[in-house]
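Sanity check

After download, print the first record. It should look like this:
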Amino acid sequence: MTRNGYQKLQEEFRRMKTRDRLDIVKEIEAARAHGDLSENAEFHAAKERQGQIESRIALIEDKLARAQVIEPQGEPDTVRFGVTVVLVDAETDEEVSYTLVGEDESDVARGLISVSSPVARALLGKREDAEVEVRVPKGTRRFEIREIRFD
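Expected structure tokens:
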């Protein structure tokens, strides 16, 4: 994962352990004060949310423990993890750019695609001016690699 992705995961972990955990404990205490727990929907909902929070905390803790932060260096001459690649659609002449990141960081709306996505796998190892065919759910698309850079 990138340094930025690692830091965002750390921030989420800290927030969940400090603020979210304390908030849910308060919700559970307030729900308990309402009386009979067997018929208390607020209590059951709060306990379920607590379980979800604890589960997410454990997942993030595991990801942080196993994370390998990759710091891209040098001038990229081929498409690889961490680069931003500018593509031109061969049919529409539309330009699009993607940054290849780890799975937990991907956000297609922001131009961040997982290095294991079909588009990224088709691009890996290619150089500028290369033409690439990518199989996507809607069929096959052809792109030309216009630029490779680190942002």
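If your output differs, re-run the checksum step. Summary of this record's structure: Residues 60 and 66 are 10 Å apart (CA to CA).
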